[in-house]
Amino acid sequence: MNSNFFEEMDRIFESFAATPDQEKREQLFTPACEVAESAEHYLLSMDVPGFKKEGIKIEVNGKLLTISGERKRDEKVLSTFTRSFTVPDTVDGSKVEAHHEDGVLSIYLPKAPIAKAQKIEIQTQKGGFFEKLNATQGTGTEGN
């Protein structure tokens, strides 16, 4: 009866031991994320505990913000994540900044300045564009 007990215990412990394939398997991770908005910017905060700055990649491609990360230990990938967000047209993608501290990734997304309304004065004399247009029409080059 003792031999059955030990055989059963061996079987249980072997089932817990990781196979080489299981050791290589990575875990998918979905970081929690918050977005705050002010008149001048958006601030995205993402919890990425255990991820180093070097393992995180941020890209802005048009209106798509993609954040991906890879956590390694001893050359083994332990977990990865990828999150993508569509950013509003108002975001100036060329001025995005990121900061990583204490397991929190913060991404600053500034809004492009909004053009202010401009009063246009109506002129009675042709000048600028209209003077050039008149000169072109007068030379018979229109329609070419």
From TrEMBL:
Keywords linked to the UniProt accession: Stress response
Keyword Cell membrane found: no
SUPFAM superfamilies per the UniProt record, alphabetical: HSP20-like chaperones (SSF49764)
A Pfam cross-reference name: HSP20
Domain SHSP span(s) in chain numbering: 23-125
InterPro entries: A-crystallin/Hsp20_dom, HSP20-like_chaperone, Small_HSP
Entry's family note: Belongs to the small heat shock protein (HSP20) family.
Full protein name: Low molecular weight heat shock protein
Gene for this chain: hspA
